[in-house]
Amino acid sequence: MKNPKISVIIPLYNHEKYIQEAVHSVLEQTISDFELIIINDGSSDRSEEVATSIQDKRIRYFAQENRGAPNTINRGIELAKGEYISILNSDDVYYPTRFEEFLKIPEGDNSISAVFSHIAFIDGQGKFIRHKKGAEDNWIDKKPETSFKGENNIILDLLAGNFLITTSNLFCRKNVFQDIGLFQNLKYAHDYEFFLRLCYHFKVHIVDKPLFKYRIHSENTYGIENKAEADFEVGLVLSNFFLNYDLKKILPDNDIYTNVAKFFNSINTFHSEKMVLTLVVFALNFKIHTEILKDLTENSESLFRKTSIDYLKNYLDVWKESQEVWKESQEAWKQWQEAEDKATKWWKHSKKSLRKLEETSQRLIKTNKKLSDMTEEANKWRLSSADALEKLEETNFRLIDVDKKVSETNERLIEITQQMQSLLNSLSYRLGRFLTWPMRKLLNK
Questions:
Q1: What does the DSSP assignment read for 104-143?
Q2: Is 78 within 8 Å of 55 (Cβ atoms)?
Q3: Which CATH code is given to the segment(s) 6-221?
Q4: pLDDT tens-digit series, residues 360-376
Q5: What is the spatial distance between Cα 42 and Cα 134, in angstroms, rounded to a whole number?
Q6: Residue 267, SS3 per DSSP
Q7: Predicted structure pTM score
Q8: Largest alpha-carbon pair distance within the chain?
């Protein structure tokens, strides 16, 4: 049977909430020539039940007692049959075109052994938080004149911080592990140590867009105790790198002290600079530079390990306390600023109100004067009105008399008219009698 092109390894541990989405993000790739190796690393939740409920002939499922992420990944690499290895943590998610876009890069250029991408951060519910664009965050507030900003050297970018973030970002040829070995048994920094080793020995390519989602949730965050252990492992990884790798191979062509200054402004030791200095000094003097990583990783009871972690824990405690004090002082400063702003606004408002009050007072004075003038005019008008009313009453009385006299006159006129009419009637009768007398005389004869 033909071997698959890609072997995908999912180290599964207590991610019953997320494993189904992780698995489906692999099964739904636009390229189907792969096998999916799921290794349940002693989960105590329903992870196994969820994982085994997904049926696909490309899935190979294994279970084991808890051995930790690096050992689980190493087992997956040993089981893998593919030409390429891709790792996906059980709470992360691939973009559907990740394999398609990744595969064409090394297939088109044999000198490229590994491919990474930018990253999309999501929360526990899968909601987008932000994009991480390569090493961009490592160089914020840095200047090219005094640091390695702008060199575009992946090792120098990694020494400024693990911008590749996680094993979920790794896609590489399987023969890489045959040449430089598997993952070291580091709980927190196994990805960082392997990325430094890989990028030092091989040519890699970074796709400048996000092709997987890195999930941030309560289960994968840790407190000061874990942070101190993680910082110790970073210090151990850096010490091992400085002792066993040739910096001249990666540094730009500057004079030695320019590179020293830029290196000083670029390296990120995550508070472990004191332990790095101690390890480097003793390793060089006692010729143990090739053993320190193995010795201090395997011996969890090492006095140096315990001393360094306690130092880092105390440092982080103080740092956390100082951050809290700083936060409180910032909050107090903010409140003071708000109070000052309110006082300033109140003062401005008071001045404005006072100015308005003065303007209102002036208007009241003018209004009072107008009212006084109007009162005086009203009094004059009242007196004039009284005289006019009195004259009006007199005129009314006269009119009544006139009206009475007119009525009397009208009555007399009516009487006279009647008398004249009677008179006229009497005269007409007499005149008629007079004129008709001769006629009546003849008739009577």
A1: HHHHH-TTEEEEEEEEEEE-TT--EEEEE-TTGGGGTT--
A2: no
A3: 3.90.550.10
A4: 778 878 877 876 777 67
A5: 33
A6: coil
A7: 0.74
A8: 199
